[in-house]
Amino acid sequence: MASESLAQTLGSLWTPEQNKLFERALAVYDKDTPDRWQNVARAVGGKTAEEVKKHYELLVEDLRHIESGLVPYPSYKVSGDRESGASEEQSFQTELQMVSTNHVAGSVEAHNGTIVCRCRRHHNPNNGSADKTSSSLSPSSSGTSNQGSSTPLPPSSSSDTSNQPASPSPPSSSTTNSTDDKKTSSSSSTSIGFHARGSIGVTLGYDGQNLPSPSTILQILKSHNITNLRLLVPIPDLIGALNGTGIGLMVGVPNDLIVQLSIGGVEACLHWIKYSVLNYINAEQVTYITVGNEVLGTNIAIVNHLIDCMRAFHQALQALKLDSSIKISSPCSSHILSVLMPPSAGTFSPLSLAVVRPILKFSSETGSPFMVNLSPFLRFLENHQGLALDFFLFKANAGTVTDGGLKYTNIFDVMIDALEAAMEREGYPGIKVLVSGTGWPTTGNQVASPSNAAAFLDGIVSWVLQAKGTPKQPKQAVEVYLSNMFAGSGGGSNDIGKHSGIFNFDGSLAIGVDVKF
Fold first, then answer.
1. β-pairing verdict for 406-408 and 401-403
2. Per residue in 411-443, is it b (16+ CB within 10 Å) or e — as a string?
3. Which residues, at least 6 apart from 454, have a Cβ–Cβ distance to it below 8 Å?
4. I need a surface site. Which of 132, 186, 380, 498 has the fewest CB within 10 A?
5. Which domains can be identified in the chain, with CATH numbers?
6. CB within 8 A of 15, min separation 6: which ones?
7. pTM for this one?
8. 3-class secondary-structure state, position 227
9. How far apart are the C-alpha atoms of 11 and 193, rounded to whole Å?
10. Which residues form the SANT domain (predicted)?
């Protein structure tokens, strides 16, 4: 147990105002910032660098105890709300005092109480001219290897918008006022668009490397009958190229924008949706917005803001009347399962519950799927429990696992049904599982080979397209996204996705086997 409890730490020693300033400062001054704790102390006021560093260490320690179930959540929680009685401009000026332009690229402007940085923007194919400026929320306290931060974001309301392209579904000025703290559920709404049962897609990560041109990517998708694409971060030119093709799009909010978008609230999320997505593609093709990726492996500030950010995005979609066709989720890693065998005993890891439980509650309220990046490869390496490698590669005659009256012939059925059992154990039966990423690497060790990758890819594609469901849920087909579209494009647990690409950048097959989608 921590020597000092979180409640004690946040009591008389730290005021609520100081805690809000503290969390906001962490999002501005990341771990690579010179003199980080001196800058944070200056932003908080009345605290030394040593005191704010100790405060951070205690928060991290308490989070570990909370996640392990040793102590309950304290009543304290930074919500990102403005101080009582403070205007948007006053709140912004408070935040602005924390920002040193030496650490933030470009200039800083006010945008409804949210820090906004001016930056260059991608060419918008919809209006035929390059938009010279756009906005990006300021850097956060951390980033992930598979998440870029060059996403175009909302311009300041004070900036000249005469050259801004029209959004296919523009948020009107009145819609943002209709998103009060209502808990409107859309779980009973009929989903439209591209939520196909038993459908398969590919994931495209982006680490800043040179990707093929949008036209080349589009040609690869079409030639292999791939009808769904997941982008870990928005790539405007590619999104524009997809417009009108019928290819469904899942687009991700980078981990390092979650804190700022959560603080910015519904309006910040509305602008992100418009300027990152809907300016380039019709809303009918957008299927999901994923808020972060495997957030549990990031830091305390991102974890604390995840659900608030997801709710703000859902309310933004409600304001746009798109909440029945575009669903919000946040993909978790397969490590959230601590018990896998037998599948009926599936249990979430105690360390994952701080994230998993709120996501399940949100999914139940909004009709969103529970997204998970499943890695049979990592499961085999870490604990294959006596099962043959062929069982993980969908090969025939690989043996059978019996659980009650159910028989399992591959690890994917086991993992999906273990997730279903774990959700039921938490009181959330019936939530659909969507596999937001899965693959098998071609290099790295003795079981990571092109032949094994080809066997897994062939097996998973056949499994999805047969749409048989699982032994526990035989009538519920599963939507699956393969990681990754290109070898070396990043994404997922332990960078497995970087070595499990389906195609090379020239469009040739990285595994040498032509799998028909």
1. antiparallel
2. bbbbbbbbbbbbbeebebeebbbbbbbbbbbbe
3. 511, 512, 513, 515
4. 132
5. 6-67 (1.10.10.60), 200-499 (3.20.20.80)
6. none
7. 0.65
8. coil
9. 49
10. 14-64
499: helix, strand or coil: helix
Query: Do 150 and 256 contact (CB within 8 A), yes or no?
Result: no
Environment class of 320 (CB within 10 Å of its CB; exposed 0-12, middle 13-18, buried 19+): buried
Q: pLDDT of the chain along its 517 residues, tens only?
A: 333 433 333 333 567 677 777 777 776 776 667 788 888 888 888 888 888 888 787 776 555 544 443 333 332 222 333 334 444 444 433 433 333 222 222 223 333 333 232 222 233 333 333 333 333 333 333 333 334 433 433 333 333 333 333 333 333 333 333 333 333 333 333 232 333 445 889 999 876 567 899 999 999 999 998 999 999 999 999 999 999 999 999 999 999 999 999 999 999 999 999 999 999 999 999 999 999 999 988 888 999 999 999 999 999 999 999 999 999 999 999 889 999 999 999 999 998 998 999 999 999 999 999 999 999 998 888 877 788 999 999 998 888 999 999 999 999 999 999 999 999 999 999 999 999 999 998 887 889 888 899 999 999 998 998 888 899 988 788 999 998 898 765 554 445 555 778 888 888 888 876 666 6
Q: How far is CA 374 from the centre of its chain?
A: 15
Report the side by side order of strands in the sheet with 108-111: 108-111, 114-119, 134-137
Q: Do 230 and 437 form a contact (C-beta atoms < 8 A)?
A: yes
Cα 418 from Cα 429, distance rounded (Å)? 12
Q: Give the tokens for residue 181.
A: 């703290």
Q: What Cα–Cα distance (Å) separates residue 142 from each residue in 48, 67, 104, 451? A: 23, 20, 14, 37
| Tokens coding 221 | 């998708």
Cβ neighbors of 159 (< 8 A, separation 6 or more) are 109, 118, 133, 135
Within 8 A by CB and 6+ apart from 379, the residues are 334, 340, 392, 411, 415
User: Phi, psi at residue 495, to the nearest 5°?
Assistant: 55, 25
Count CB atoms within 10 A of the CB of residue 190: 8
